[in-house]
């Protein structure tokens, strides 16, 4: 079943067409990567889906329902979560509190009440937060203030925060940006692990081809806002148009 569909999605910034008639379908349990050269429109596409940007034209449907007029938090409540790129961590709060706030936000959709005084009354939030921290390997650091975590663990917490809302679809925009090779490996392992454990559907924007080829079921290639190819990693590897447009003829 199609979980996410974009229909003729256009985003213009002044005279610049950042996404140009993009029709993207992501099926349940599918892992889709979006690749393309700098400025191809990858982040714009993600920001349209999360409703951080309004499209100039087109529709976005999630589980068959149009989300194109919704507020960002309404999209989160329907099961779309985005990890990375924006600072989602509250540095002064503990790892556990960060996960609990994320779990709670998905239920309430906002922070319009005093979380800390109400938290004992909130069923389920503790369990979801603890399960999530367990899944990302941070349960033993639950009481650590988030700001004291090493960089790699902060990124794990970001994944945890995205997962704590129990999303049906996780959007990841360059999850390994700025990481050391070891942190990159451990993040990729973590994504693989979470994918197995939670049966997650995700859309990944990533420049590192090794990562893309290893964890995607399907790859969508954007160039100047347009989808120029899509297929399995093997199909994309062998696609001449992709080689030309994106990789400058370099063998993958
Ligand atoms: N808020 C904005 N205002 C004006 N132009 C924008 C804005 N956001 C993006 N653009 C332009 O839209 C085009 C697509 O940008 P986008 O960031 O989506 O590309 P990208 O594929 O994510 O690139 P990168 O790989 O470098 O992150 C670029 O030409 C960019 O300069």
From TrEMBL:
MF-aspect GO terms: ATP binding
Superkingdom as given in the UniProt entry: Archaea
Annotated ABC transporter domain residues: 4-249
Pfam family, one: ABC_tran
UniProt entry keywords in alphabetical sequence: Amino-acid transport, ATP-binding, Nucleotide-binding, Transport
An annotated GO BP: amino acid transport
Protein family according to the UniProt entry: Belongs to the ABC transporter superfamily.
Function noted in UniProt: Probable component of a branched-chain amino-acid transport system.
Protein name (database record): Probable branched-chain amino acid transport ATP-binding protein LivG
Annotated organism of origin: Halobium salinum
